[in-house]
């Protein structure tokens, strides 16, 4: 005799979500840790009613943010900090509320971070069409705004009959919990269907534990890799976010200590080894270290682990200049494992490193030469000294530089606090300057580099690990774009530190504009000038301290090194979120370090300097190696 629960679609979703668990290495936990919602007519009645009736009873906490994009950033940051073993669900109304999530959905997908998105959709029965906020596509009548989620989701479905959930939800959770497939998962929910009831087989709501797989490498490929490593004179490792998500830091440390192979880091991978580990050669690529980049340039074997090899990592394919260089990639995702013509080892980072360590030992591999190890040591020491110099405040200047602020904040919070950042000049500077002492202490969203991630991201990290000190570094531009989750944090009683570095605008893009031979234009925050009618007037003064205070934050203005140190200490002891506003000299920029990033320069121009820059650009593209053997 079949048994059923009669529930609406909305109620069924809440109950199902609450009962999904993950297991990895024998540890089990709930996968969806809460529901974030901004209600509108599209979701307040259907899914919203289900949330009210069931979420508390099912132990799912409900959160009410200020912006749909922001709540998805928070969910992604939460999931990233939890090594993708837990996330949040996010629901919106139809139309603009749903559209607001698309940007952050892309961010999650680019970064391979699970988030569950439940936007509402137009009536499946189409009777009241066009419903408020409906985009009426004149030709494709089944298209809705939510189709904009398709290219940025790893799984997409639209539920036009309740019972479709029986097939859709398990598939959604399979994708969310799969390390290779994960990203944004979107289930669009027509307004009428959310409220419709169905007789659900009770088995549908039984607790389900999703095993998070750790695939082992194919033995034949391990044999081949061992031969390649044994034959290499100048091997390096590039370690990305996947190493951290796989919790492979210790395995990586043991591996490199056994064989003297230097590790270079990406934005998502930084922190996998302590900054001062002798084999941590620093960050690689366009924003990389002189040490890592010299090793990369001359490497004959590059072992990439858990990285998607973005253009910043490969310096737009200029990083590797040894004609004999070969790549091997350990990655759980086949797409990433096959980049740069690498020998693809589709496997979990921790498992692969553990197996490689023992196989290399059995093969009597003794590791790299003494000469190579001492070269690595010298390069690292020189790099660390350079960074200490860049981080140290210079006496006497009226304003600090951004690099000095980073150094001061890092000194004050230590290497175990988590720093959060995403866009602007600071990601590149943090990559070089920040000194993490724990794999979870460096949280950069630099796959999508989405302005606005910073504050909601900090909130997500703090929710994931409330005991950890969290410091958000945010530019004035990103802050002005998205700051209102401060209100959410205040409401939740969450204490974190936000440092606004105010340099009057989009200074990193201004720097880039100059680098591509264009005059300063449209990036600083300036008044329209009465005479020129251009945006060349004085800086528009923004009182960020008052702004933060108006949202309930504790706010401090800090201009000198001493004031910054003191403010960070005060923030740590404050009873609520603290915003520290630091004005900086925009022209104290990161010095050039001989690296490159491909940003094309105009091929023709009336400006002499643009034409000169184009010549330099064309010359630089000659260093690109688009294809490797
Ligand atoms: C949503 C979004 N829009 C535009 C950009 C392009 N962009 C990257 S950094 C930046 C300026 C950021 O300004 P600010 O936060 O003040 O940092 P600064 O450049 O001054 O370091 C812009 C416009 C982006 N990354 N994300
Ligand atoms: Mg700025």
Description:
There is one protein chain. With 629 residues, the protein is an alpha/beta fold. Helices cover 37% and strands 18% of the residues. It is built from 23 helices and 23 strands. Helix 7 (219-231) crosses helix 13 (349-362) and helix 15 (402-413) runs parallel beside helix 22. The termini are far apart. The model has no long low-confidence stretch (mean pLDDT 97). The site of magnesium ion (MG) has 8 residues, from helix 18.
Q: Main attributes?
A:
binds magnesium ion, 629 residues, alpha/beta, single chain, 6-stranded parallel sheet, 23 helices, globular
- The structure class reads alpha/beta
Sheet-strand content, in percent, reads: 15-25%
Low-confidence stretches: none
Query: What spatial order of strands do you see in the largest sheet?
Result: 5-4-6-7-9-8
Taken from the alpha-carbon principal axes, the silhouette is globular
User: What compounds sit in this structure?
Assistant: thiamine diphosphate, magnesium ion
Alpha-carbon distance between the termini? Answer: 63 Å
* Topology, number of strands: 23
* Main sheet specs: 6 strands, parallel
The total count of helices amounts to: 23
